[in-house]
Fold this sequence. Notes:
The chain is an all-alpha fold. The protein has helices spanning 12-20, 24-37, 43-54, 61-72, 79-90, 95-106, 116-129, 132-145, 151-163, 167-175, 182-194, 198-207, 213-225, 229-238, 244-256, 260-272, 279-292, 295-307, 314-326, 330-339, 345-357, 361-373, 380-393, 396-409, 416-428, 432-439, 448-460, 464-477, 482-494, 498-510; strands at residues 518-524, 527-533. Helix 6 (95-106) packs antiparallel against helix 7 and helix 27 (448-460) runs antiparallel to helix 28 (464-477). The protein binds one DNA strand through helix 3, helix 5, helix 7, helix 9 and helix 11.
Amino acid sequence: MSMVATATSPPPSILSFIEIANSISQLHQAHAFMLKTGHFRNPFASSRLLTKATSLPISSPDTLSYALSIFTHTEEPNSYIYNTIIRAYSTSPFPQLALIIFLKLLNSVNKVFPDKYTFTFIVKACATMGNVKQGEQVHGLVTKIGLDEDIYVYNTLIHMYAKCGCFDVSRGMIDGLVEDDVIAWNALLSVYVERGLFEFARELFDEMPVRNVESLNFMVSGYVNVGLVDEARKVFDEMLVKDVVSWNVMITGYTKADKFDEVLGLFEDMLRAKVKPDNCTLVNVLSACAGVGSLSQGKWVHAFIERNGIEVHDFLATALVDVYCKCGCIEKALEVFNGTLRKDISTWNAMIAGLSNHGYLDDALNTFNELIADGIKPNEVTFVSVLSTCSQGGLLSEGRRMFDLMINEYRIQPTLVHYGCMVDLLGRFGLLEEAEELLSKLPVKEAPALWESLLSASRSHNDVKLAERIASKLLELDPHDSAGYVQLSNVLASMGRWGDVREVRRKMRSEGVTKEPGCSMIEVDGVVHEFLAGEGIIL
DNA sequence: GTAGGGTTAG
């Protein structure tokens, strides 16, 4: 008989409430109720709560720390509860915590023992950390307990060694198997592919005594990862069985290679093959539509999403907002944006950038303020749009305030692009000294584009001396940089130094530097047109 | 009473 005061079993209603919960606030409600009624002390009830907290559709560091608080408030957690929290941390950005909790388990007063589940999770944590020393120690313990007989634990170890770069150990374990196991082979193959070690992947693949769809999917993505999309396509076409991942890998490959026509063609093939597209497919197809500026196909995909009752949030919402923005339908973009409940920072970023790029500067900044008011943390991409909005609108004090907010409030290290916006903004107001001071914090070598920006500002403010100084600096840095030549000759031209202009142009030719033409695309009446620009511009 | 290995995304 148990001496511990066990709580009564929880009523089924609270358990089913937890089962259907899909937000942290619903779990808080269940949690509060359980604390009040004492059901939280029932191990099964608290484990249901914890499991749900670790598998919410929306997970963040917040949900994870909530899960941790459930764990820490559980008196004498059983092995299931330990395993659940260890699993949650094993693939999180903080896998070390999984290890800390694992040590706590080993030293637990109520003598909890690690089991085969514990080891799959903790080995995975070592893999995530890339910490082979820890991995080896855990492996030792696995062997001692005799759990290396378990194929799940065994395969996770194979993957861990591969992840840590110990390919020979990983391979040795595969060879040590009495019976061939395709997942064991795939565990090593996947790491070769992930690291772009395509030769190793190919060699291993040829040697594999067992293969499945996933093995071939890895090979296709292996070709894609090293930029050989056509080779990937050959493997893909020869596959007898294709699952949704096969199609997605190939489609993603074309998207990465900017081969948007192929993306759209493959998408049609996929539908003809009666394979159901998932979010990953649709995100890529939409991004191809955005890439070619095809509003009609974007709309078609949107209709497909609605027809099939696919929920739009996060990734998919971002892709839709983006495609409508890129195709110039800012109203449709807003409609999607406002109709989406689950937005992540990228969704906000796409909307802010879209508004800003279409000249709705106030709306862009208002949307940014809304985001802040909603308690969402902006990232560096957000600030690119925000600062560029300020720069476009000549909003000097706002721009300075945002730049300060980014650095001091959100602790985001500005990148060259952020500095670029500030230089541009300061330059427009003729605050060349302030801009130069800002730039001087950066190594010149890293920021030629910023100096170019300051150079054009100095030209438009007739600070010819500064302009000439920067132009020479740019050429010194990179004698093949066309922009440097263009700018320098423009400076000289504005001073009427035509002889020097000719000299620069001669030097440019002798270095073999040409000005690259710009290129842009637009859809008119359902046909995508491509334009080349840049010729005939005075040098 | 609940669980585990290798996989594509802006």
